[in-house]
Specification:
Chain A is mainly beta and about 110 residues long. Chain A is globular. Chain A is built from no helices and 11 strands. The chains are: A mainly beta (about 110), B mainly beta (about 110).
């Protein structure tokens, strides 16, 4: 089982739609959680950190469920510019490195 | 100006050649990382450095070496490039003094080994 798993998509949605992505992680002792956005052949950019209490940034809402070991990202009122790959990132509780990346979920917002 | 700068942006080389990818940062972060990204595999850690005197192997360090010349500079070398090292390479930094500790990436180097 992969340490961080995401549905690769693509999710094809019309403009204005609401879309949700989930990510599961295997290590219950993981400490920090993030969503990054990556455009094709570009560097990942931090979208938001994810907290147990849930957090919102404009049209984006992230949730963490530690009991079920999953993280979600909700995008409301999708824009064409939201088309990208969304990476779930989890920090390891111990070991030789800190950040574990999912393979990403690709979103296409259609006009 | 980019906070994390990678050079070159693109490189094509031949099997057996020695290649160096360079990374510099103006963020003042102690921690620096090298990742490679392959389609369908996500980002994988090659090497990381938590300060100038600290170098650690990541999950896929074979065939690579690094040098931390200063707090701001972290170079990745491919001693003898092979075709399966063709990938998109990213340098990243983080600041352990901030919580949660976020990763900041350079714009990447696309390396092709023929």
């Amino acid at each position: 089982r992969k340490e961080v798993e995401q549905d690769p998509g693509p999710f094809n949605v019309p403009e204005g739609a609401t879309v949700a992505f989930n990510c599961t992680y295997s290590n219950s002792a993981s400490q920090s959680f993030f969503w990054y956005r990556q455009d094709c052949r570009k560097e990942p950019k931090l979208l938001m950190s994810v907290y147990s209490s849930g957090n919102e940034d404009g049209r984006f809402t992230a949730q963490l469920n530690r009991a079920s070991q999953y993280i979600s990202l909700l995008i409301r009122d999708s824009k064409l510019s939201d088309s990208a790959t969304y990476l779930c990132v989890v920090t390891s509780a111990s070991g030789t490195y800190k950040y574990i990346f999912g393979t990403g979920t690709r979103l296409k917002v259609l006009a | 100006d980019a906070d994390v700068t990678q050079t070159p942006r693109n490189r094509i080389t031949k099997t057996g050649k020695r290649i160096m990818l360079e990374c510099s940062q103006t963020k003042g972060h102690d921690r620096m990382y090298w990742y490679r990204q392959d389609p369908g595999l996500g980002l994988r850690l090659i090497y990381y450095s938590f300060d100038v005197k600290d170098i650690n192997k990541g999950e896929i360090s074979d065939g690579y070496s690094v040098s931390r010349q200063a707090q701001a500079k972290f170079s990745l070398s491919l001693e003898s490039a092979i075709p399966n090292q063709t990938a998109l390479y990213f340098c990243a930094t983080s600041d352990p003094g901030r919580s949660p500790e976020k990763l900041f990436f350079g714009s990447g180097t696309q390396l092709s080994v023929l």
